[in-house]
Amino acid sequence: MKITTITVYHVDLPLEHPYWLSGGRLKFECLDATLVKLETDAGITGWGEGTPWGHTYVPAHGPGIRAGIETMAPFVMGLDPRKVLDVERTMDLTLPGHLYAKSPIDMACWDIAGQAAGLPIADLMGGGSRTPRPIASSVGAKTVEETRMVMERYRRRGYIAHSVKIGGGVARDIARIRDVESMRRDGEIILYDVNRGWSRQQALRVMQATEDLQVMFEQPCETLDDIAAISGKHAAPVSVDESLVTLQDAARIARDGIAEIFGIKLNRVGGLTKAARMRDVALAHGIDMFVMATGGSVLADCEALQLAATIPDHACHAVWACQDMLTVDIAAGRGPRNQNGHLHLPEAPGLGVHPDEDVLGDPVAVYR
């Protein structure tokens, strides 16, 4: 089997509500999505998606994905997509770095491999749990009142997991954490996500002031060095996501005890192939996981679910799905959808969902 055609689409995905990170320092209203279709000489077609969370969140942006694919396409053409390691190595040699640009091609290759084997990707990767995964909401509000309002909106949709964005100032963050904890329901999973918004002293002041609540924090500071520097000075479990980009990052976090949780974002780390190695590092060191798309449609959500299903139930806290935040549905209700706050693994072979091409519009590039 060989890749014969790579077709690239650009789609804007407007958000239902404006979204703020870290106390309002970053605002998002529309996501720039890149959809990739791989066609093969065996008649099997695979789909991938790369949707960064805006252009200002981390070093990744929509036009960069499309430029990266243009660079890699001549070298990926003719490869067997089922040999995901060959495709991965080719992309890494052709375009060092730029992991986010490689993720949609990797995803499409896994989709084809699963279809060829007649298995969901999770089963093909070695073990697909059918335990529904809780969906983590993303509560990007600016005030205590707005945080309550957004959490209630998600609770009405059945959500039991919440990623509450903080990082807007020490006193304000302490007040917001204490307010959310005062209304936490039994069985809820709450992660306080700072998105790199604290300095070291701010992190210590908030984390020490809330130790009695035994809450979890995600990415409290900018770098792994920052998080490591304060790790022995507080008692809170820490999740790392923005600073978890490469396998070397995962190895350092595990080796040095920098964090207790991995937040694996598939587009950021380069796709399923690379993310699976991080999963194994985490499992070998007793590190729990959240699995997330960086953003995007139900295709990206489904990819995250496929990886999450390969993680033992006790070690996977939740997945993050962006689909409930969008006003555009590119797959007409197909694929894994919110069922009482959870996603269920599709039984269809491969990814488990493909887009409606009529919704995507004309391709922006075709490589043969």
Structure explained in plain terms:
The chain is an alpha/beta fold and 368 residues long. The protein has two domains: 3-119 and 358-367, Enolase-like, N-terminal domain (Enolase-like, domain 1, 2-Layer Sandwich); 123-343, TIM Barrel. The chain has 13 helices and 13 strands. The protein has an eight-stranded parallel beta barrel with strand order 4-5-6-7-8-9-10-11. β2 and β3 (45-50) form a beta hairpin. The protein is globular and about 60 Å long. The mean pLDDT is 95.
Task: Give the helix/strand layout.
Blueprint: E1 3-21, E2 26-40, E3 45-50, H1 62-76, H2 84-94, H3 99-117, H4 121-124, E4 133-139, H5 144-156, E5 161-165, H6 170-182, E6 189-193, H7 200-209, E7 216-218, H8 224-230, E8 238-240, H9 247-256, E9 261-265, H10 266-269, H11 272-284, E10 288-292, H12 298-308, E11 316-320, E12 342-343, H13 357-360, E13 365-367
Parallel strand pairs: 4-5, 4-11, 5-6, 6-7, 7-8, 8-9, 9-10, 10-11
Antiparallel strand pairs: 1-2, 1-13, 2-3, 4-12
CATH topology value of the largest domain: TIM Barrel
Strand-pairing-aware structural class: alpha/beta
What are the segments in which pLDDT stays under 50 over at least 5 consecutive residues?
none
Helix and strand sequence: EEEHHHHEHEHEHEHEHEHHEHEEHE
Total count of helical runs of at least 4 residues: 13
Described by the principal axes of the CA atoms, the overall outline is: globular
Residues in β-strands, percent: 15-25%
Mean pLDDT: 95
**Order of strands, widest sheet:** 4-5-6-7-8-9-10-11
In the residues, how many domains can be counted? 2
CATH homology superfamily name of the largest domain:
Enolase-like C-terminal domain
N- to C-terminal distance: 15 Å
Helix content: 25-40%
